[in-house]
Write the C-alpha cells for this entry.
Amino acid sequence: MNSTSISLLLIIVSALLYVQAGRVGECRTSCVERNVQRIVRVHLRDNYVMVGACNNATDAQKAGGVLAGELPFESIVTPYICHKKIGVWTIDELDQEGIAKFPVRCPSVDQVSQERIASCPN
Ligand SMILES: *[C@@H]1O[C@H](CO)[C@@H](O)[C@H](O)[C@H]1NC(C)=O
C-alpha cells in the first residue's frame, strides 16, 4: 500500500470509530445531524472536528442547481467544524472542498430523541 491509501484507510477507520462513539470531546454527531442530515466524512485536527454533512438534494435544487456541463446530482455535502472543548457546530467557511454536490443519495440518519437534540450546546 502506498502512503495515500494508508492515510485514506486511517481516515476511514477514525471516521468509523468516531461515528460509533457518537462524539469527540463536546462535539456530538447528533448535534450536527439533528435527525435530518448525515455525516459522511470526518477529519480531526488539533482541537477541531471537521465533518461533511449530507443532505439529499430537493427537486428544486436539482432543477435550478445544475450548472452547464455539470453532472446531475442527488446530494449536497456541507462542511461543518466544531471545537472539542466547546461543542458548537458551525459551517466551515474555510474548508477547501466547500459545499459539494454528489451523484448519489445520502445514507439514512440514525434518529435520536428531540431531548438529545435540544440539549446540544449552541
Ligand atoms: C436520502 O434518501 C435516501 C433514499 O431516498 C434515504 O434512504 C435516506 O434516508 C436519505 N438521507 C437523508 C440524510 O435524508
User: Anything to note?
Assistant: The chain has one domain: 3-118. Residues 3-118 form one domain. The longest strand covers residues 48-56.
